[in-house]
């Protein structure tokens, strides 16, 4: 099948979901497409937004079913994208990502599958990169100021905790990166 014909069939299929031009289903469909054009959304998130706009459940539920069948709404794909980008760009832990997806109404089995794409090594590496980047931007305390060093280390552990990393991993990563930064400073000073 040639690509132009396939594109026309997809457009025709999507248009058939719309319903009449001025009816509530048409308005709900248009609102759905606008919301989905901004970013991918979970089914529960899209339903909540449509309800907030005043669309009745009798219109929203069948519309969402049709959007899923057309491939425009997919919780598994949404969760996979969410995990990928929030881990890469936001340095969120698996635990934090699971909480975020749960708040967006994604099923636990789908969440488990999505966060499984992040290995322990990936998670530790992302935390370490975040600490390294933060250390490179901050002025670290003098080597002989132990209290200031402990205070800065606590701040770094807290930063990782807010991103959802467990205390053991956060503390280990901070101490490893702190030592590496100190060795690098000492080598630069020689």
From TrEMBL:
Domain (RecX first three-helical) ranges: 28-67
Pfam families cross-referenced by the UniProt entry: RecX_HTH1, RecX_HTH2
Gene3D superfamilies named among the record's database cross-references: Winged helix-like DNA-binding domain superfamily/Winged helix DNA-binding domain (1.10.10.10)
Location of region: Disordered: 1-25
Keywords noted in UniProt: Cytoplasm
Subcellular location field: Cytoplasm
InterPro entries in alphabetical order: RecX_HTH_1st, RecX_HTH_2nd, Regulatory_RecX, WH-like_DNA-bd_sf
Annotated RecX second three-helical domain residues: 74-114
Similarity comment: Belongs to the RecX family.
Purpose of the protein: Modulates RecA activity.
Name of the protein this chain belongs to: Regulatory protein RecX
Organism: Tomitella cavernea
